[in-house]
Amino acid sequence: METETSNQPPSLLLTTFNLSSSSANPVSIYRGDESEHERVTPTSKDDSKPYVTLTFAQSLDAKIAGQNGKQLILSGKESMVMTHWMRTMHDGILIGIGTALNDNPQLNTRHLPALPSTFPHRYHLPRPIILDTHLRFSVDSKLVSNYRAGIGRRPWIISSRPSSENELSEWNSKQQRLQAAGVTVVDVESKGGQIQIPALLQKLRSLGIRSLMVEGGAQIIKSFLTHAGLETGSKCVDAILVTTAPVFVGNDGVGYGQDLIVSQIPSTEHVLTEVFGRDVMMSLRVV
Ligand SMILES: NC(=O)C1=CN([C@@H]2O[C@H](COP(=O)(O)OP(=O)(O)OC[C@H]3O[C@@H](n4cnc5c(N)ncnc54)[C@H](OP(=O)(O)O)[C@@H]3O)[C@@H](O)[C@H]2O)C=CC1
Ligand SMILES: Nc1nc(O)c(N)c(N[C@@H]2O[C@H](COP(=O)(O)O)[C@@H](O)[C@H]2O)n1
């Protein structure tokens, strides 16, 4: 089992992403907001989209949050460190606006072992990417304050410019407010009020995102699971890593499993299952 003091990503991740420990250097020189293309990261065979890792933590009864969306720390210390290793290995980290507003997350790598103070490198930080059709994201969020303090990357908000004149003026003023706070707003096609996942992935790849870690919440997990290439013929998720914690949440908790249609979920093959502290982490590859 991996220890907290190791300074290489755990073997479960290297195996799942087909990377060798010598190539998968999680540290790089952090030069402000610049991208670091020399870093090795999982890549898709289809170069029009990023490699997509869907990952989240759940209870034994498949809940990812408590009553009314109350944020739960389901992962124990060891599996949380594992999630932070995974963050260093991806160019971008994606959540839905529900999670951004509810959890006010940082999406950084602060649980990893400290690097020597003389070391010129830092852990790679993934670009925060938030799906937010109506621009509800708050300029007072930790993601914005970390960016402004120079300890986080500039957040990208993925939205969809409304076609009606009435909605457009409100959207424009929200966009200006976000941009004034340092946030980048990216316009992507939406259908039925939801950002289209295949179009989103193409857009992100064109903006230099080679690998994307999708963390949730419930609606985002459902969308990525069920958009697995049915419309485009190419898959939208490459790997799925689920942490299961030894707790029950009960019926009031938030789950992602209601209304899932199994024929819409991609075929997967099991890669590895490992124990991290008291949790189990399972990795699957979409085939
Ligand atoms: N245990 C874990 O690992 C994790 C748990 N969570 C928990 O999940 C909960 C939040 O989940 P939830 O409320 O479902 O919110 P989500 O984070 O899944 O965000 C959903 C929102 O994203 C926007 N959106 C835009 N495009 C899409 C799309 N294509 N598919 C889905 N959503 C889209 C929609 O808002 P709009 O229409 O305004 O754009 C939608 O309401 C929180 O309680 C959080 O704590 C979150 C992450 C991980
Ligand atoms: N891996 C994992 N385990 C849990 O128990 C969780 N609740 C989550 N949640 C995700 O992590 C975000 C919080 O990130 P920061 O600690 O603020 O960096 C949260 O918003 C979810 O996306 N993940």
Radius of gyration: 18 Å
Cofactors and ligands? NADPH dihydro-nicotinamide-adenine-dinucleotide phosphate, the ligand Nc1nc(O)c(N)c(N[C@@H]2O[C@H](COP(=O)(O)O)[C@@H](O)[C@H]2O)n1
The CATH top-level class label: Alpha Beta
Low-confidence stretches: 1-5
Structure notes:
23% of the residues lie in helices and 24% in strands. With 287 residues, the chain is α/β, with parallel strands linked by helices. It has seven helices and 15 strands. The protein has one domain: 3-Layer(aba) Sandwich (Dihydrofolate Reductase, subunit A), CATH 3.40.430.10. The model is unreliable at 1-5 (pLDDT under 50). The protein has helices spanning 11-16, 77-88, 97-103, 142-148, 165-180, 197-206, 218-226; strands spanning 27-28, 51-58, 63-65, 92-96, 122-123, 127-131, 156-159, 184-187, 190-191, 194-195, 211-216, 239-244, 254-255, 268-276, 279-286. The strands form four sheets. Strands 8-7-6-4-11-2-12-15-14 form a nine-stranded mixed β-sheet, sandwiched between helices. The structure holds NADPH dihydro-nicotinamide-adenine-dinucleotide phosphate and ligand LIKH6CAM. NADPH dihydro-nicotinamide-adenine-dinucleotide phosphate binds next to β2, β3, β4, α3 and β10. NADPH dihydro-nicotinamide-adenine-dinucleotide phosphate binds at residues 56-57, 64-65, 69, 71, 74, 95-99, 102-103, 131-134, 136, 193-195, 197, 215-220, 223, 254.
